[in-house]
Design a protein that fits this description.
By secondary structure, this protein is mostly helical. 42% of the residues lie in helices and 7% in strands. Strands 1-2 form a two-stranded antiparallel ribbon. A hairpin with an 8-residue loop joins strand 1 and strand 2.
Amino acid sequence: MASLNWSQCPAVESVPGRRSGAWVFRNTRMPVATVFENLEAGASIEEIIEQFHVTREQIQNVLEFAARSLDAPPAPVGASALTHGHSL
């Protein structure tokens, strides 16, 4: 899967010292990657909302951001998230 520049998604943040700087839903400790991991494992969005105490809007924002990012033309090598080592 392509690396996404999560710094452009207003629904998430990376805070040094919180979850080792992983991208998390804003004002939470819930890693964004957890949503994708659970969806891949067959969980429904409703199950993720209940288990991790995030909102449908938060999940929808992240899924829409990822979909838009994957539709965008590829960034030049060495640009954006690639230079910062951020990936899903």
